[in-house]
Design brief:
- With 155 residues, the protein is of the alpha/beta class.
- It is built from six helices and five strands; from the N terminus they run αβαβαβαββαα.
- Helix 3 links the parallel strand 2 and strand 3.
């Protein structure tokens, strides 16, 4: 019975990340590290828009400097498509998607967004998940699952 519930919870999280944090290398280093760590722990991903000024060398140096103490960078990626799809203008921003979603690849294409919850601001991942869970929006159930993962409970 317990295993069946755990399997159902894992299935509910879908095949693609549903909890996405949008970040920037301009964020203070301790804030960025905490964000990536907590979002990863919760089973989500943190994305950056791309290379600042298109310079991959500076990007790599900045990432290496931030995670020089051998901390794991967790689930950190670059995906400007997600920034475009959700029209993200500020970081940090957070989105909880109610169903699988794959953004379109073109610069001029328009995505049909799935139902989702969204919040922006300098708030903790735990607060974000609590807000989504208690808000009763399309991502509420998934927010509760991600919150349990953040707290250390794994299905």
């Amino acid at each position: 019975m317990i295993r069946a519930q755990a399997d159902a919870e894992v299935a509910a999280m879908g095949d693609t990340p549903r909890f996405i944090a949008f970040a920037s290398l301009a964020m203070p280093e301790p804030s960025l590290k905490a964000l990536v760590r907590d979002v990863s722990r919760a089973g989500g991903v943190t994305v950056l828009r791309g290379f600042p000024q298109g310079d991959s060398s500076s990007f790599k140096k900045r990432i290496a400097a931030i995670w020089s103490d051998s901390d794991d960078a967790g689930a950190l990626g670059i995906d400007p498509r997600l920034f475009r799809a959700f029209d993200i203008k500020v970081a940090p921003s957070f989105v909880m998607i109610a169903s699988d979603f794959s953004p379109c690849d073109g610069f001029d294409c328009k995505d049909v967004l799935p139902p989702h919850d969204r919040i922006a601001g300098n708030i903790s991942v735990a607060e974000v998940l609590d807000t989504f869970a208690s808000g009763g929006g399309p991502g509420a159930q998934l927010a509760r699952l991600h919150s349990r993962r953040l707290e250390g409970e794994r299905p």
